[in-house]
Amino acid sequence: MNLEDLEIYQLSMEIGERIWQIVDKWAYFPKDTIGKQLVKSADSIAANISEGYGRYHFKEAKNFSYYARGSLYETGTWLKKAYLRQLIEEKEYIELSTFTQTLGIKLNNYIKSIGSKK
Fold this sequence. Notes:
Elements: H1 7-23, H2 28-55, H3 58-84, H4 90-113
Helix pairs in contact: 1-2, 1-4, 2-3, 3-4
C-alpha cells in the first residue's frame, strides 16, 4: 500500500487545502496571527502521517501518528478561535469541525492498527 492510498492521508491533505483556501482570503492581521497557526497545524497533520509512514518502524510510525493527532486537535482549537473572532461563518465552522472529528476517529483507528497482524 502506498501513502497516497491511506484514507487518513487523503483526508488530512484535504483539510489542509480547505483551510488554506479559507485563510488565503483573510486580511493581513488575522492571516498573520491565527491564519498562520491554523494553516501550519492543519498541514502538519498530513506531514506527520507521511513522515511516520516513511519510517518503516512501527514505534516511529505510531509516534508520528500521535504528533498528527496533536496537530489535528490544535487545528480544532484554531478553528474555534477563528469562529469566535468571526473569521469563519458558523456553517463553515461546523462543517470543518465535523470533518476534523471524523478524521480523528479514523486516525485513532489507524494508530491502533499499526503493528497489528491482519
